Amino acid sequence: MDGLKNPIGLLAGEVQPERVQWLGLIFCIGLIALILNLVVRRKIRESYSLIFLGGCVFFGALSLKRSLLDLLGRLVGIYYPPAALFLLISIVFFAFFLHLSMVITRLSDERKVLIQEIALLRRDFDTLQKTVRERSSIK
Amino acid sequence: MIRSRILVIIPAYNEAENLKSLIPELRRVASECDLVVINDGSTDGTESLLLELGCPTLRLPVNSGIGVAVQTGFLYSMRQDYDITLQVDGDGQHVPLEISHLVLPVAKGECDVAVGSRFAADTGYMASWPRRLGIGVMSLLIRVLTGRAIHDPTSGFRAFNRAATRFLAENYAEDYPEVESNLVLLVNGFRMKEIPVRMRPREHGVSSISSIKAFYYMLKVSLCLILVRLRGRNKSWTV
To answer: Is B71 on the interface with A (CB under 8 A)?
Structure first.
């Protein structure tokens, strides 16, 4: 973790991979705190938060242990390990957006049914109200 | 002979100016039909106008698009047990005098759906060339996918019998639904007939399909048409 011990290195323009690791870890911890906060305030459902929390833990682990990234690169047959990470992130995000699109489609369909039922019930209510008014005026 | 109960469904979003003349005209010309306007969350005084005119209304709580509005009309017609449902756009382009030409073949049982067409014969309708081109492409696509010629697949002036009404109450696209619904009906074995009708240009307001949306419209509808063909018949449905 020389990068943090030697801030002069930054000024000198040296490459500091450890600094990136620290930044990654801090970002992951911050994100976990934010997600937990959102779950506590019921702004995000537990089921969705699990996906994000899992992702944070995974990327936090990669930040702490660089050899994991090398292992990942070797596993998928990619020479340059960060490229393997990029590929993994792309796949995870694609899958998650696809899942969200399916959720939105289902919610839109359900919303449509509710809107239509409200309109039809309003009509029934108006008709009933009119009938009651007419009957009471006859009496 | 028992007379058919006919319901005219009119989807409307901010069409107060056009409805002002359309509703009295419909009442005069098609007095034997019941009317219901589906107010799709209008913000231009449509609601108060309909109240003033004493016109039955289905009020959608939020603007939901033409497809949801028309489908609500089909649901209402189905639940109120009407024999024939007639769709008339709220923009005043459909001529109420033509209603009888659409209703007659459906009432006689010659077809399940009658589509009012501007292009099945020379009706004197003048459309801009981009619109004609778009309609031509849709028409060609339907012909390729079903082998049937529908000259005016975007027409929203249509009459449906009970079975078609019930089907569309369950299966109706949300945006730009006319072309897709025509194809779905054909794929599911409904008999469709095109009837040449006159239409007039809209008097007030602007069409919901602007030139910017036209490209998206073409893409979306083309994709939907191919998907409808790939899905094939609705297995839970028998005509």
So the answer is: yes
Range(s) of the domain holding residue B48: 6-231
The predicted structure's pLDDT at residue B1: 47
* B230 touching chain A per CB within 8 A: no
Q: Which residues of chain B neighbour A108 with C-beta distances below 8 Å?
A: 174
A119:B174 CB<8 A:
no
Other C-beta atoms closer than 10 Å to the C-beta of A30 total: 11
Q: Which residues in chain B come in under a pLDDT of 50?
A: 1
* Cβ–Cβ under 8 Å, residues B90 and B70: no
Closest approach of chain B CAs to the CA of A98, in angstroms?
19
In a domain, B239, yes or no: no
Residue contact B72–A118, C-beta within 8 A: no
Tell me the pLDDT of chain B averaged across its residues: 88
ipTM of predicted assembly, 2 dp: 0.82
Give the pairing of strands B113-117 and B34-39. unpaired
Structural domain includes residue B237: no
Residues of chain A found within 8 Å of residue B56, distances taken between Cβ atoms: 123
Q: What is the CATH number of the domain that holds B194?
A: 3.90.550.10
Decide: residue B177, CB within 10 A, 0-12 exposed, 13-18 middle, 19+ buried: buried
Which ranges of chain A have pLDDT less than 70? 1-17, 139
If one counts the domains in chain B, the total is 1
Whether B72 sits inside 8 A of A123 (CB atoms) is no
Nearest to B75 among A116, A122, A126 (CB): A116
Examine residue B1 and state whether it is found in any structural domain, yes or no: no
B236 in any annotated domain: no
Q: Which token pair is A84?
A: 């393997």
pLDDT, position B77: 97
Q: What is the pLDDT of residues B71-122, one digit of tens each?
A: 999 999 999 999 999 999 998 889 999 999 999 999 999 999 999 998 877 7
The count of C-alpha atoms lying within 13 angstroms of the C-alpha of A2, restricted to the half-sphere facing its C-beta, is 7
